[in-house]
UniProtKB/TrEMBL annotation:
Gene3D superfamilies in UniProt: Periplasmic binding protein-like II (3.40.190.10)
Highest taxon, organism lineage: Bacteria
Keywords: Signal
Name of this chain's protein: Phosphate ABC transporter substrate-binding protein
Signal peptide interval: 1-22
Source species of the chain: Steroidobacter flavus
């Protein structure tokens, strides 16, 4: 019995570690003219320093739920900040009237559908969720 618990614990830790190392992909609508974006450009959007794509078009931001592992990975890799630090930045920007935080959606599928439906949208998902309905512009 004890060895079964140990084996289950090891399996759970292995799966958690595999999820933590998953690739995150920044996606846009296929009609968006951007072929690629840099981490700096994505960070500017997701930290409220810019509200437009490099071509000048307005951006509509999609975010993952706070409980999603992909959210923490995204903010660490794209912005160099934790998800909590980014949330604090948006709270300050919202309070001062200088920005509107990204729309929080429930799943990768919801983010993908949101981006696929709006030519101005940008979001991020686990790399396994990317398909032809969206265009990948940055792999983190």
């Amino acid at each position: 019995m004890r060895s079964l618990k140990t084996m289950l614990s090891v399996c759970a830790l292995t799966l958690a570690a595999a999820g933590a190392n998953a690739d995150v992909v920044v996606i846009v609508n296929p009609k968006n003219p951007a072929a690629s974006l840099s981490a700096e450009q994505v960070a500017a959007l997701y930290l409220g320093n810019s509200s437009q794509f490099p071509d000048g078009g307005a951006a509509t931001l999609a975010d993952q739920p706070e409980s999603a592992a992909v959210r923490g990975t995204f903010y660490e890799k794209a912005t160099g900040r934790s998800a909590a630090q980014a949330k604090a930045t948006w709270a300050r920007l919202t309070f001062t009237g200088k920005g509107t935080p990204p729309k929080e959606l429930k799943t990768d599928a919801d983010v993908k559908a949101f981006v696929a439906a709006d030519p101005k949208a940008i979001g991020y998902v686990d790399s396994s969720a990317v398909d032809g309905s969206v265009k990948a512009v940055l792999k983190l």
